[in-house]
Amino acid sequence: MAKAKEAKEKKSKSAKSSTKTYHNFIGGEWVKSSSGEWFTNENPADTTDIVGRFPLSNKEDVDLAVAAAKDAATKWRRTPAPRRAELLFRLGEILRENKDRYTRDMTREMGKVLKEAGGDVQEAIDCTYYTAGEGRRLHGFTTPAEMPDKFAMCVRQPVGLCGLITPFNFPMAIPSWKLIPALVCGNTVVIKSGEDVPLSALNLVKACEEAGIPKGVVNLINGHGADVGSALVEHEDVRLISFTGSTNTGRIIAEQCARDNKLVSLEMGGKNAIIIMDDADLDNAVEGSVWGAFGTSGQRCTASSRLVVHKKVYKKFVEKFVERVKKLRVGNGLDAKTDVGPVINEDAMQKILGYIEIGMNVDKATLACGGNALTKGEYKNGYFIEPTVFSDVAPNHRIGQEEIFGPVTSIIPFNTLDEAIDIVNGVKYGLSSAIYTQDVNQSFYAMQELYTGICYVNSATIGAEVHLPFGGTKGTGNGHREAGTQVLDIFSEWKSLYIDYSGKLQKAQIDEFEI
Ligand code: UN1
User: What is residue 17's predicted lDDT score, i.e. its pLDDT?
Assistant: First the structure.
């Protein structure tokens, strides 16, 4: 793993002088890193295609960004929320106008096919419009006080300076899920985006600048998690860390935040499953399973990495599914004919191939199709893996338990709905689940019993919309939800207000009131 990183850094130093150069955004200025070093952003479908070079930042840069966010905090907090929201609506317009350009940039740096990259940008647009509307709501509540001539109410206040750490798989949508609610609530932010996809977050931040969001309110630092991410997490002026990424990193962040008494919201792994009942519309279930398992090359926290299939339709389903998967076209996401793009980098490729190895040689499941890296011809400069299906997987197999985050899915047979529910729930994660059935009783029973943050009926485990809460149970998170109005509970804190207009001392819980 370290080797791949080293190679990448070496390459960055030798990047051609014609390579486009991008900067950090600190206090409203586009600046290089204090080290003066750079890293390159490559197209994972063709690593000879260099998207650009970005500042390789360190703690010093984080300190500057945090100082800028701190300076901007009071003015931004005191800006009326509807005024803050006006800027966010303007941001939504800019994102909409530039959607095609952002989409291409994203496919080039991340690899997902153009249609999906367009969906990712669209999700950022949806999130921006939806959450900007909160500028005229941010509802609190009033409630009666227990004393006469006394008023009680509750309002939201910003938490303060937020560090936002985002992953590679949704390069614009996930930064927007954190940034927009943080801003509408009146916080200032420092973003550390995924180092494999720095351009999409930069496009979002540039659009914030164009929308007129004041200097210092939004700051962006590029670089590696070990340098920039941890400096942000450890900085004493950062009040909240919002993180999406791996469970291991999330745990380290949570431990650090606990020591420093920081707020922290975590969105981590998943091992999502679709149940396919014997009465399901099989063709529909096959289409949904292909989309859920291989969309974004399986690199979604919500990917359908287990297909739990009723024994009565098992053979038929496996046949139809494998036939359909074999037809998927793997290739460069910029080619409109491609169904499945590359995976993000060499480390990811090795990890996924490692799991395929485990599936074959440790779990001894049946490799129903795929299983190979694609390394020749059009694939030779990218990170491509064949869409891979394992059948006859047991619920406790490693490939049935651990998050693979790649184009690999496992088919597990079952006999009864209760058994299927136990299989779905029998992993350490709890993000998303789904059931295909025509039976209303079975679907409601499953919705009740599946212990996940998101549950679908007659569609795959992916496809969450921005106005519903997003997040998971158990090892997926720490109880928070992004999106919806629920995200406001991450980026604001409640303040209870009591106003006594009786003109005398009244003691709650002590004074008696004569009726
Ligand atoms: C993720 O899975 O990493 O629900 C985010 C979906 C998208 C967001 C996914 N709207 O599939």
Answer: 58
**301 catalytic, yes or no?**
yes
Cα 179 from Cα 201, distance rounded (Å) = 10
CB 316 within 8 A of CB 19: no
Supply 340's token pair.
């499945």
Two structure tokens written together for 127: 């999130």
Q: For all residues of the chain together, what is the average pLDDT? A: 96
Per-residue pLDDT of 30-63, as tens digits, reads 999 999 999 999 999 999 999 999 999 999 999 9
Q: Look at residues 321, 284, 293, 297 and name the one whose alpha carbon lies nearest to residue 457.
A: 284
Cβ–ligand 1 distance for 391 under 6 Å, the answer no
Q: Which atom of ligand 1 is nearest to the CA of 466?
A: 10
Are 354 and 373 in contact by the 8 Å Cβ rule? The answer is no
Tokens of 22: 């991008």
Confidence (pTM): 0.96
DSSP 497: E
Share of the chain residues as helix, strand and coil, in percent rounded to the nearest 5: 40, 25, 35
Residue-wise pLDDT for 392-405, tens only, equals 999 999 999 999 99
Ligand 1 center to 353 CA (angstroms): 23
Spatial separation of the C-alpha atoms in residues 8 and 381, rounded to whole Å: 14
